[in-house]
């Protein structure tokens, strides 16, 4: 569920991490299919919170992954997911410092 964001026009509502989630939550309450949420979901803890509180069924982090390709490694560290394994060892260089 997205309200747009492809035009050079500024939205007429506040923009913050997860700002489109209230729209997705309203849609989720009205339909019986999975609903995804978007909108500056850069924080692993925010993404996890949205899922754990059942506000959305899936979070989309497309632009976040463009800005930070190793976001999944970072998220696993922040969320203490000790079972996470990068696809291959080339990603281990990106885990240093987290």
UniProtKB/TrEMBL annotation:
One of its GO terms (molecular function) is NADPH dehydrogenase activity. Pfam families: Oxidored_FMN. The keyword Acetylation does not apply. The keyword NADP applies. Gene3D superfamilies: Aldolase class I. Residues 13-80 form the NADH:flavin oxidoreductase/NADH oxidase N-terminal domain. Its cofactor is FMN. This is NADH:flavin oxidoreductase/NADH oxidase N-terminal domain-containing protein.
């Amino acid at each position: 569920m997205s309200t747009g964001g492809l035009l050079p026009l500024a939205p007429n509502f506040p923009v913050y991490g997860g700002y489109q989630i209230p729209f997705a939550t309203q849609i989720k309450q009205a339909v019986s299919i999975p609903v995804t949420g978007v909108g500056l979901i850069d924080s692993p803890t925010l993404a996890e919170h949205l899922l754990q509180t059942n506000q959305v069924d899936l979070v989309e982090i497309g632009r976040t992954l463009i800005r930070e390709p190793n976001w999944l490694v970072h998220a696993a560290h922040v969320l203490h997911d000790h079972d996470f394994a990068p696809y291959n060892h080339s990603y281990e260089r990106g885990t240093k410092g987290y």
